[in-house]
Write a structure and sequence with these properties.
mainly beta; 0% helix
């Protein structure tokens, strides 16, 4: 090996000096000191490490100079052993799963070497923490030159399955027209995005039967309950505000109530609708409409989410069934309409936003209480309208998945109640 000993090397011309050729390796012996006079660059490391993305650490290991590591302590605490210190050596580590606060990572120096001037291990126990150590000298040992706990992470959103899924802008809409499960596999790391909007509509009550030229009562609408999350823009109903629900990563069973059964024969009330349920929210089925007759005791409309209308008779005026039963706030429905003594006019079923009514004329169609309009499904739609009174013949049934009450009949059976529906809306992007 040739050897040249000089005190200074200067370029023959210009100001740049080239040592070696492209591809050559220039070795500086251990212990060499490079003096920076203000213009030296490119000697030694520049404060960065080579991150070992292909080897996530899950148990005790020994670090190497110039490397950075991702430490996954979700399965338990462990230790990172530092390499033997040499001036300029550098090691970094970061909390891979944001679990240092639960299972700490211990940083252990080599032998009696120091960390920050003290002999002993360091403990990283802050969520999302990342640190960089540089070995300076025997006095201070390894110095932490960069410590971050900002824990900057990407914004995630809810991921879920169940029902019929559609999209409106940045929102997913899950529509359940029958029993199912709203299954959440991922929630957002932004709490506000975990609050969902929902509408829960119960099955409507059936209209009552009628004889003696009397009108039977219309079926009460299924209970209507809705809550709008601030992060899911749409036009909600006047009944919005049933209570915020923030989901977790689990399955939420969905119950969709069926409509009340059609009354089987004369002097029979219409059947009540069945309840619909999502999480802590239950909407009550609509009350069946009362029978229209001069005999028997089946004229009264039933209580429910909205009350059934009173069946007509020639002897007494009577109120319809009570709505918002059991009571919730905002109210899930209204009372059924009363009958009219004498002419044979029955009361219509209560609706989500208005009570049932009556009409003096038994040969007129008496509309049920008004429903509630919402755009939770991306289209303005009205749900939970009370069943009307029919001027003649059998009453029509409520439409499926509307929560509408069945219409009352005249000298005939009333219609069945419409089944309920559950809709859930959330931000997905």
């Amino acid at each position: 090996m040739s050897k040249i000993e000089v005190n200074a090397i200067e370029p023959q011309c210009g100001t740049n000096l080239t040592v070696g050729a492209s591809g050559d390796t220039i070795t500086f012996p251990s212990g060499t000191t490079v003096v920076n006079n203000g213009s030296q660059t490119g000697f030694g490391r520049t404060g960065t490490v080579d991150w070992q993305t292909g080897s996530i650490k899950t148990s005790t290991f020994t670090a190497a100079n110039g490397e950075g590591y991702f430490a996954n302590t979700s399965g338990g605490a462990f230790t990172m052993n530092l390499p033997a210190g040499s001036a300029g050596a550098i090691v970094s580590v970061v909390d891979y799963t944001n679990t240092f606060q639960t299972n700490a990572l211990t940083i252990s120096p080599n032998g009696s070497e120091k960390i920050g001037g003290a002999v002993g291990a360091a403990v990283l126990n802050t969520e999302g923490q990342s640190v960089t150590f540089v070995y300076v000298d025997g006095t201070e040992g390894w110095k932490n030159v960069q410590d971050s706990t900002s824990n900057e992470i990407g914004n995630t959103f809810i991921t879920a399955t169940g029902g019929t899924i559609t999209t409106s802008g940045n929102c997913k809409i899950h529509t359940f027209t029958g029993p199912g499960t709203f299954c959440v596999s991922q929630i957002s790391n932004t709490p506000a995005n975990n609050q969902v909007s929902y509408m829960v509509v119960a099955g409507g009550g059936a209209g009552g039967t009628s004889q003696d030229s009397q009108q039977s009562g219309g079926g009460g609408a299924g209970g209507f309950r809705e809550d709008k999350s601030p992060v899911t823009p749409y036009t909600a109903s006047p009944l919005e505000g049933a209570g915020a629900i923030s989901v977790t990563a689990t399955g939420f069973p969905i119950t969709v109530g069926g409509g009340g059964a059609q009354a089987p024969g004369p002097l029979t009330k219409g059947g009540n609708g069945a309840n619909s349920i999502f999480s802590t929210i239950t909407s009550t089925g609509g009350g069946g409409g009362g029978a229209g007759s001069n005999a028997g005791n089946c004229r009264g409309g039933n209580d429910g989410g909205s009350g059934g209308g009173q069946g007509a008779n020639n002897s007494s005026a009577e109120a319809g069934g009570s709505g918002n039963t059991p009571p919730v706030s905002p109210p899930q429905g209204n009372n059924g309409g009363p009958n009219v003594t004498g002419p044979g006019a029955g009361g219509s079923g209560g609706g989500a936003t208005a009570a049932g009514t009556n009409a003096p004329d038994p040969d007129a169609n008496n509309p049920g209480g008004a429903g509630a309009a919402t755009s939770i499904n991306a289209t303005p739609t009205t749900f939970s309208t009370g069943g009307s009174n029919t001027d003649s013949g059998p009453g029509n049934s409520g439409s499926n998945n509307t929560g509408d009450g069945g219409n009352g009949g005249k000298n005939a059976n009333g219609g069945a109640g419409g089944s309920g529906i559950v809709i859930i809306r959330y931000k997905f992007q």
